[in-house]
Amino acid sequence: MTPSPHADALLDMLFPLWQFVIGIAVALFVVVATYRLAMRGPSRMRAAMLVTGAAIVGITVVGILSNRHA
User: Fold this and answer.
1) What is the tens place of the pLDDT at every residue in 10-59?
2) pLDDT at residue 63 in the model
3) Residues 6+ apart with CB under 8 A from 45
4) Alpha-carbon torsion, ordered 17, 23, 26, 27, to 10 deg
5) Around Cβ 48, how many Cβ atoms within 10 Å?
6) Is-contact 38 45, C-beta < 8 A?
7) CB 37 within 8 Å of CB 44
8) Dihedral of CA 59/61/64/70: which sign?
9) Is pTM, for the whole model, over 0.90?
10) Quick check: 26 and 18 in contact, CB under 8 A?
């Protein structure tokens, strides 16, 4: 059974709304986590920034390498 075109149109209109809701939830989590980390002091903040930066670089490298071999 194939879905009706009306159902597809409704999902296409709702999809950006769900992306927005997820984006707001992630942004809220990041703000709260950053605030709590900043309250713990500069040494932990520095370590957290280094770990986060390394993770971003690692994910970027893996993404680039996986796209080259695809």
Assistant:
1) 667 767 777 788 889 988 998 888 888 788 888 887 888 888 889 999 89
2) 86
3) 37, 38
4) -130
5) 15
6) yes
7) yes
8) negative
9) no
10) no
Q: Is the dihedral of CA 34, 37, 41, 44 positive or negative?
A: negative
Checking if the pLDDT of 68 tops 80, the result is no
User: Which are the contacts of 37, defined by CB distance < 8 A and separation ≥ 6?
Assistant: 44, 45, 48
21-33: buried (b, 16+ CB within 10 Å) or exposed (e) per residue? eeeeeeeeeeeee
What is the Cα–Cα distance from 33 to 25, expressed in whole angstroms? 12
What are 65's two structure tokens?
């390498």
Q: Which residue has the tokens 């920034």?
A: 49
